[in-house]
Amino acid sequence: MALNFAKTEEAKKLISTVARVHGPSVRPYVLPPKTPKDRLQILRKAFMDTMKDPEFLAEAKKANLDINPDDGATLESNVKEILKLEPALIAKLKEILK
């Protein structure tokens, strides 16, 4: 993994952020703020159950789609980490990704 070659904490944060931005969290399903927790949990469970459904997976395979979802809690954590980036790292990332 590229992360293993990072020599500084800053480099590790940059690589980790890019991996999150270009990983499963690129196309998350989102709900409005203040969605009741019970609904959130129901929808998260339904989504993950769908991602494991044999018929769904068979159709995805026929369409050559790669199915490797993260659960909602993981995506939520990824977004929170990205939003906590220091301004200097955000500027550096913008420069790198031009």
Description:
The protein has 98 residues and is mainly α. The protein has helices at 9-21, 37-52, 54-62, 72-83, 87-96. The longest helix is centred in the middle third of the chain and has 16 residues, at 37-52. The model has no long low-confidence stretch (mean pLDDT 86).
Short account of what is shown:
This protein is an all-alpha fold and 98 residues long.
Structural key phrases:
single chain, 98 residues, mainly alpha, globular
Residue-averaged pLDDT, rounded?
A: 86
Gap between N and C termini, in Å? 23 Å
Q: What is the helix tally?
A: 5
Measured by DSSP, the beta-strand proportion falls in: under 5%
Low-pLDDT ranges:
none
Largest sheet: none
The SS-based structural class is mainly alpha
- N-to-C series of helices and strands: HHHHH
Q: How helical, in percent, are the residues?
A: 55-70%
Radius of gyration: 17 Å
How many E strands?
0
Overall geometric form: globular
What's the topology here?
Blueprint: H1 9-21, H2 37-52, H3 54-62, H4 72-83, H5 87-96
